[in-house]
Automatic annotation (TrEMBL):
Signal peptide: none annotated. This is Helix-turn-helix domain-containing protein. Pfam families: HTH_31. InterPro entries: Cro/C1-type_HTH, Lambda_DNA-bd_dom_sf. Residues 17-74 form the HTH cro/C1-type domain. Gene3D superfamilies: lambda repressor-like DNA-binding domains. It comes from Nocardia jiangxiensis.
Length: 99
């Protein structure tokens, strides 16, 4: 599974990062949305930046897991809480780090 390098993601929005990673992993919007319990339209809105607020941390963690992302800052490099804690997907300490 090809992972985007940091230069592919630099300066991108959360939605753009999700779309780049999703397409690089070869997953359709329908598949990813279904795996996180959301609609394809919702995921399209996330990717296109049409939501008023970005997805909450728990949803970003689910998306990261489905997309095979190991470090959540690949999706959300701008969040101050993530910049401090460098949350690793699947890390049992993530709840303590994000509290």
């Amino acid at each position: 599974m090809a992972q985007p390098n940091s230069s592919d993601l630099a300066g991108r929005t959360i939605g753009e990062r999700i779309q780049i990673i999703r397409t690089r992993t070869g997953k359709s919007r329908a598949v990813v949305a279904g795996l996180v319990g959301r609609s394809e339209d919702w995921l399209r809105d996330v990717e296109k930046g049409r939501l008023q607020n970005p997805p909450p941390l728990d949803m970003l963690l689910q998306l990261a897991q489905v997309l095979g992302v190991r470090d959540l800052t690949e999706i959300d490099a701008l969040s101050p809480s993530l910049a401090k804690s460098r949350i690793r997907v699947g890390d049992p300490r993530r709840q303590a780090d994000s509290a």
